[in-house]
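ok so i was messing around last nite and threw this chain in just to see what happens. nothing serious, just curious
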Amino acid sequence: MLIHRMSIVAGVFVLALFSDTAVAQSGFYIFGAFGNTSSDVPLGGLNRVDDDNSSYVLGAGYAVNRNVSMEAAYQNFGNPNGETDCPPGFTCLVVPLLAQADVMGISLSLIGNLEFTDRLDVYGKVGFVSWDIEFKDISSAFDASGEDLLYGAGLRWSIDDHWKAFAEYGKVELDFDTASIGMSYHF
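result:
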């Protein structure tokens, strides 16, 4: 299923590259955002990562035309606590109490936007993320990794020809929900 989704995203990337609509600037940009991520991720058995944390994203993109962009990003979903649902009186391989995890990912996304005015636009995003959950100071038996679909929507305001501010809500199918605000610089 993931291979099918990745093929669709890759196909849209290729089609966007052959679009003939010009972009006034070079098309390349960098961005960063800070926000809050809510997670509820099952780790097999009765263990899970379930918490709200500060998060951030750093990345680069290319505006193929006025309505289509592609982005690659490093995403840090924060340091949620591990939890277990082991019933009292049972022996389970459980995440130790207050064990914190590093949750991060690398993503590729396709962004489509619609302009409301010359300074304000709304956008939607779809792509995939390769994620990794590593617990600090405990056995790697609780670590997990994988790939999932990501999608989101946002509102972007052009401050000038180079700087843009944005607010975004994004979701990773694994069960990460992120609300963030950020800035981008367009070359």
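not much to say yet. Strands lie at 28-42, 47-63, 68-78, 82-84, 101-115, 120-135, 144-158, 163-172, 176-186.
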